[in-house]
Amino acid sequence: MKKIIMLLSLVVCMSFSAFANDQVALKDKIENIDDASFQCIKSMTKVRGFYVDNIDSERLDETLLVAQAGKGEYPAGSIIQLVPTEVMIKHPKGTNDKTNDWEFFELKVDKQGSKIHVRGFENVVNKFGGNCLDCHQKAKPEFDMVCEQGHGCDPIPITPAMTAVIQKTDPRCEVNYTLNAEEMAIAKQLKALFGG
Ligand code: HEC
Questions:
Q1: Domain boundaries, given as residue ranges, for the chain
Q2: How far apart are CA 121 and CA 104, in angstroms?
Q3: Could you tell me the pTM of the whole model?
């Protein structure tokens, strides 16, 4: 009996330390986020209108579970993007209560890759002068600050058809996507609205 208890506690200890190591590895990966952490949006996994990933590829399944369910708390390491230049990354629990541990990023992207232009928790403002947190915190609590449509956030001035074209023309992707006539018309509209 004593032997069994010893064995059991050894197994518990070992799995706990494996869990602890795992957490440290994830924390390291999150702490080392830099320009190279971001790639072509189409290399991520599409869920409805947006793309998800996890900084630790072994945890992508956990992120996908929440994204596909359409509600719930995203696990640490989750990366979410609607357009190539704006990103949310989930830090470990307790990092920032006000943002539900999300860090917001605005990137500059071109053929060469991504450059982090601004990053942070509460004070990140996008190129239209909007504070990320101000909008995203209006999502009802069960959506963990993910806005999509109808979650309670203030709307953005781009339609789902426009975001689809922006995603398809991410300049970081190796194969350039050829737009069809309808998409070309939308791209023109985007250019008129936002320049570039
Ligand atoms: C004016 C309000 C507003 C501001 C400011 C804003 N967002 Fe959003 N964001 C939205 C809305 C609304 C959506 C959903 C749009 C859709 O699905 O069509 C969205 C979508 C997203 C998504 C995809 C996941 C989701 O929530 O649906 C990410 C990631 C994101 N925004 C990041 C950012 C970042 C980073 C910033 C700041 C640099 C930012 N946003 C600023 C309103 C805003």
A1: 1-32, 34-156
A2: 6
A3: 0.91
Ligand 1 atom showing the smallest separation from residue 131 Cα: 5
Q: pLDDT tens digits, residue range 108-151? A: 999 999 999 999 999 999 988 899 999 999 999 999 999 999 99
- Which H/E stretch holds residue 139? none
SS3 138: coil
If one counts every other C-beta atom within 10 angstroms of the C-beta of residue 56, the result is: 19
Nearest CA to ligand 1 atom 5: 130
User: Regarding beta strands 86-90 and 102-110, do their DSSP bridges make them parallel or antiparallel, or are they unpaired?
Assistant: antiparallel
Which residues does ligand 1 sit against, CB inside 6 Å? 49-50, 80-82, 86-88, 104-106, 124, 126, 130-132, 135-136, 146-149, 153-156, 160, 163
